[in-house]
Amino acid sequence: MIVPEMPGLGQRERFENVEHIYEKRLLSRYVYLAVVSWVVLIYCVWFCNGHLPTQWTKADTKSDPEHFIEEYAAFNLKQLTELGPKIFGTYANDVLAVEFLKREISYLATRSSSTNKIEYDVQRASGCYYLSFQPHGFVNCYEGVVNIIVRLTSYISTGSALLVNCHFDSVPGSPGSSDDSLNCAVMLEVIRVLSQSHLPLRNDVIFLFNGAEETPLQGSHAFITQHQWAKAVKAFINLEACGAGGREILFQAAQNNPWLLKMYAASVPHPHGLVVAEDVFQSGFVPSDTDFRIFRDFGKIPGLDFAHSSNGYVYHTKFDNLDYISNGTIQHTGDNLLALIKKIGSSESLRDLDRYSGGRMVYFDVLGFFMILYQEDIGFYFNIVTVIVSFCFQWKILRYIEPGISYLGSLKLLLVSCKVTVFGWILGALWMLATSKILNVYDLSMSWFSHPYLVFTLYYCPFIFSSMFVYVWYQSSAMQRFKALDRAQLYTGGVQVIFCLILLCGTIFGIRSSFVLMLLILFPCLANIGLMAFEKMDCFTHWVTTYFVASSVSVSYVFYLTLLTFSLFIPITGRMGPAASPELFIGCLSIILCALSTSVVVPMIALVKKPKEFLAQVGGLYLLTMVTLMNTSLGFPYSGDPTNPAPQRILVHHTQQRFHHFGGKAYYDDSGYWITHLDHHNPGVLKEIIPELQNARNVGPLCEEVLFCGLPVPSTRLLAQSMHSLWVPAREPVLHFSSTVRLLEENWISDERLLMKFRVIGPSRMELFISPNSHVKLTEWNYNFPIPNGKPLWNSRSTYFIHYATGDTRSDFNLTLWFQVKPKNDETTVDIAVIGHYMNHDYSKGFKAFLKKFPDWAHTTAINSMYASFKF
Q: In whole angstroms, what is the distance from residue 249 CA to residue 331 CA?
């Protein structure tokens, strides 16, 4: 090597500088090679996530008559989808869908083998129960719910049964192809295969085609609490959707029945599930719930919860049709379901659940190829051991880099290596907050909604820039005495120590998702231990190569998790409510996932030959994105493109309001369009498109006078959103009959105890809000469950909610309430508001004309409603 002349330096110093220059150049090459390799790795992860199995057709039945055939299931799905929206209480749901299912099941029964016989029942049920939804629970009553139940029994049956559930109803305005007709079509095909199989199942399999899930969760309650076959059910599989197509994900599992997860992992050909999804779903971040809750809470049985989550933009919209279900989706779901049913149906576990019970499990799939699962208590000790080993190694490497350093000096050096990383993260978080604030101020919020790649340039780039900047700054000061390789080892060691501290906290608090940090610590740590054992820590090429390869194993899983996270949560921001801050939410997700995926390599990127040029490139990409958003249409969040929709969700209730004095005389009568935007933009650019919205008023003035502002709120989950909604005056809607409450009886049982009986009349879907006066307490009612806590408060008074749905065109039910009144006086006892939702789509001409003014990127759910308040 030719050593260049360096004025003012001796021979030894010249050789040390040459060595540093050589290492830095070599490090630059390795880092850029690693970046390219990781781009390839990201593509591989993306490909595996989107890969679906080859579809089987009718012609394939000859080669394997007991295989799931997508073509058969797709035909059934087409029939169900073509019925249009199937709302409980409508002809399409309660008659047409039921007749279709009965016809298909009867046909399969005639072709079943003598080994596994089919019997089915049509259940029509009524009932009431308390549903503890978040943030506010309510009484959930139903009448005339229709379920189709199929039982598959073999001649060696033990009598125990596995339940498999789907629902064929849908929300208003949506054909419900993915949610949830797809799973019902899959179940029909599974019934065909099992009923024609000559392999007997040890346990019965009960297939529940649920006719009222969207109302919500009424059909499952009707079956599990009332049907005669429910007593035989020992476990369940629930099939749902929060998107369209793709691989179904296992996102909830029974807490103390690990045998179910083990059977899933051992049997299905295309496993896809992770405990992170379960932790997130049960935390309440996802504004949805499934029949899993009903079977678990009311049936007291263990189960597994699956859902299709790809392309969540079409969930509960007019776009949920066959066009957005990718080829292979049905095959993927059917292959897994059939294999899982065969495994559980042939097992001994259903006969003695206590024998196979246990604690919670940590589980995750590896790119859909296989599952890894282990007991939570084993994971606890494994995490602790990983933390201890990593700490010990990082301490030893400090002594290795600077021999003879004191313990106090080692501690200071360790704190410096950690401090650099933490400062970079803090700076990145502050930049994220500034970006979200700027986007909100310039009305560019959710620009990534229809362009998810913008998340990288808006939030990943600033975070990477911030981390790199701090490393570069420390490189020229505190860490100058170390050569490039030593600095890389110190900085990456600091990242490992921080991850260890976070892992330790997550493990202590029982957060099973902490296994992600364990993976990020484990593989680099093992690689470094191996290098130190073979005395290769000083070999630049060996260390950098080994570190990158080891890190890639764990980081590839973080890439996988990132892809799943954003594909789920970016569409969900379209229904998080007006009060939410989607920019802050996605920004926080971004910096967490960016820290996990890039912190192991950012320290070395900062040590490349020209780090400032790299900083300029990353920062320039961010600035270019911001300038482009502010000056082009790229910042518009929605898309009405039929091939790639990303609609804004809007509820439009054509409403009649009628308020009554004590005694029943109406004193206020108004009508208009109640408009609720389910996302952050309220009403946004729509004011420029729809002239009527320019005359819209806020709903605030009526909030203190009548229960919840006189709005026809269809769910307690929308109470918060309703405070941010708009009211547009309009002529009254088409209502063929009124919604009303009549006092049938008022009886003082004692000086302080009052009984009141009411009759409630209205359409097939109703809500009842009850608020006793401040000196009155509701003590009993005619339901067989306790009175809840009375939250939220209205004017400092308790409130109670009753939801009622019926399969008939009209509702007519009685309500009995017992009050404790202190002291007895002439004031009103209780305020009651009744809300009727008329599902017949008999819209007025004015309402139809108003709805047509909404652009193609807006999905409107339109309902005729009536709000009537009474004082008694």
A: 14
